[in-house]
Each structure stands twice: as structure tokens, then as C-alpha cells.
Write a structure and sequence with these properties.
Strand content: 5-15%
Number of strands: 5
Number of helices: 16
Order of helices and strands: HHEHEEHEHEHHHHHHHHHHH
Structural class: alpha/beta
Shape: elongated
Strand order of the largest sheet: 2-1-3-4-5
Helix content: 55-70%
Radius of gyration: 25 Å
């Protein structure tokens, strides 16, 4: 719905010659700015690189709209202080998840992330930062070494064993593999090749093993309030422009279904990101029940943003209800 609203604004800029609308469109299209921080040595550079590769804009803590705090193993007092100082929504990334234990380290890291989330109240997800941040494909020499490991497994019990134990693959290549993938990545790369994965698809397979998809889903949810408030600000600006200019198209867009639905959808994203359930049913009874429920919710002791969200859900639901009751032509 938000994209439909942005498309209508873009058409106004291009077809109707409304340069005053262009800055509003541009601000809606800006990526959410993420400030990646954490103690030295926890892997914050890897996390920042992984997010940039997937379209997120990283920024300084002063300019960031969402805080991504990178931790290792557990939450420290310094980490808790950083979360307490956050000016906006935050996400905790427990990196180096591959080192969480000898048996199924990702499962162990997921449990650690759950412990951290219960301690801080902030969404927390695990990540193997080294694999998520792979910036270019492995060269042929390293892929060939990994292919050898399929039939001649190396000793992965420790870093020293992997490099020092005799093996047909030269030690210098094993050291290079450690720098790029670490032992966890080597094991997953060998498994992928043994499953028939093409060398060109190896990077995607390793990225999937890193847990980056879970980080992206969590970050998108955490950023929902930023997108919502940005959209509401744009609508307010449009209302001012419409009144000042008296332009019929702007006045129509201010009251259009696309505008109301865009704001409602963004509000629903915020509520669902907070763990609340919103009925997305598309019948008249669903629209009415949703309006009643969220009107009641908005009257309770809720945070200001959630109060705004509930009002926008009610407004959009009532509009949908009116449309559903209109007799068909």
C-alpha cells in the first residue's frame, strides 16, 4: 500500500508539475539509516558490511534511526548502557554464532540470543558475521581445496589441527580458508559441494547458513515505527501543501483510499512488530471488528506511537467498511 501511495505522489511530480512534492517523495524513498555499534572485537564491521550488501544504509550513532547493537556471547553492562541510550528502536545481533559450541552452535547461539532478549527486552538474533559479510566469491584455488575436502575431510576439531595436521591441501590454502570462512564456514561449504551445489552458488549457500535472513526479518520489523512516522510526516506535509496551494489533485490525494491504506498498513506493521495480532480480514464484519478492537485499545494506557497506530487502523478499517457496504454498480 505504501508503494502505491508513493507511485501516486511520483505521478503528481511528473505529470502535474509539482516540484514541492518531490522532497516528500524523496524522503519516503530514503532507506532507513542503521547505526551499527558494539564493543571492539565483537564483529560490528562484519555486521555493517552484511547489512550494506543487502541494501541497508549504515550511519553514525548520531544519524542512525535504528540501533543495531552487536554483542558476543552475552550482554555486558556496556551493552545495556548502549541500549538505554538509544534514541529509537534497537536490534541486538549476537554475532560469532559459529563459536557458540561444538555441537550445533547455531542452536546454542539461538538460546543465548533468547537469554539476552529476556534480559534486555530488545529483539535479539544470532549471526555468523564472517559468512554474512562475504564480499566476493571464493577464487578457484579455494573452491578446488574445498572439493578435495569432500573426499578427504580435514581435521576441524580446532584451528591448530586444521592448519597443522598433514593434509594433501597445502597449509597456506587452509589458512586462507580460515580467514575467509573459519571452520564453521569450511564445514558448510564442504557439505554444500558434496550436495552438488555449484561453485557459483556457494556464496548464497554460506550466506543462508550465516543466519542473515533472520537478521533482515528482525531488522525490518524493528524499523517499522521509523517507516510509519516518516509516512505520517509526509501525509501532514501534503495536507499543508494542499491547503496552501488549493490544488485539486493534492486535495484529492489527501483524502484518497491509497493514502489512508498506506498509513493503516504502516500502522499495522508497527503493532505486529510489537507482538500484537491484527486481523487482516477483508470482509465487512472483519473491518468492523478491527475498528472496534483498536478503538478500545487506543483508549487504554498505551505508548504515544501505539495510540497513533490504533487511530490509523480504526480510520482505515472504517473506510474499508464503508467501501464494502457500498452497493455494487
Amino acid at each position: 500500500m505504501t508503494q502505491a501511495f508513493v507511485d501516486e505522489l511520483t505521478q503528481l511530480v511528473g505529470a502535474a508539475g509539482m516540484p514541492a512534492v518531490r522532497p516528500i517523495v524523496d524522503r519516503l524513498r530514503w532507506p532507513v539509516r542503521v547505526a551499527v555499534t558494539g564493543r571492539p572485537g565483537v564483529g560490528r564491521d562484519c555486521v555493517a558490511a552484511a547489512l550494506r550488501r543487502r541494501g541497508w544504509a549504515t550511519a553514525t550513532p548520531a544519524a542512525g534511526e535504528v540501533l543495531v547493537l552487536v554483542i558476543a556471547e552475552t550482554v555486558t553492562g556496556e551493552d545495556r548502557a548502549a541500549l538505554a541510550a538509544a534514541r529509537g528502536p534497537a536490534l541486538v545481533v549476537l554475532t560469532k554464532a559459529d563459536l557458540a559450541g561444538p555441537d550445533d552452535p547455531l542452536a546454542t547461539a539461538t538460546r543465548w540470543a533468547g537469554d539476552a532478549q529476556r534480559l534486555t527486552g530488545v529483539p535479539t538474533v544470532p549471526l555468523v558475521g564472517l559468512l554474512a559479510a562475504l564480499d566476493h566469491p571464493l577464487d578457484d584455488e579455494l573452491v578446488d581445496a574445498l572439493r578435495v575436502f569432500v573426499t578427504a575431510p580435514p581435521d576441524l576439531t580446532s584451528v591448530d589441527a586444521f592448519v597443522a595436521r598433514p593434509h594433501v591441501v597445502a597449509a597456506v590454502l587452509r589458512e586462507r580458508l580460515l580467514l575467509r570462512l573459519d571452520r564453521f564456514g569450511v564445514a558448510h561449504a564442504v557439505r554444500a559441494l558434496s550436495d552438488g551445489v555449484d561453485a557459483g552458488d556457494l556464496g548464497a549457500r554460506l550466506a543462508a547458513a550465516s543466519g542473515i535472513d533472520g537478521v533482515l526479518v528482525a531488522l525490518d520489523a524493528v524499523a517499522a515505527p521509523v517507516r510509519y512516522l516518516r509516512l505520517r510526516a509526509a501525509v501532514r506535509e501534503l495536507r499543508c501543501l494542499a491547503v496552501e496551494s488549493g490544488d485539486d489533485e493534492l486535495l484529492a490525494l489527501r483524502a484518497a483510499d491509497a493514502t489512508a491504506m498506506a498509513v493503516m498498513t504502516a500502522a499495522v506493521d508497527v503493532l505486529e512488530a510489537a507482538g500484537l495480532s491484527v486481523d487482516r480480514g477483508d470482509t465487512a464484519s472483519a473491518h468492523l471488528a478491527r475498528a472496534v478492537r483498536w478503538r478500545r485499545y487506543g483508549r487504554g494506557p498505551v505508548a504515544a506511537v501505539h495510540g497513533q497506530c490504533s487511530a490509523d487502523v480504526v480510520r482505515g478499517s472504517l473506510r474499508l467498511l464503508a467501501d464494502a457496504r457500498e452497493p455494487s454498480a
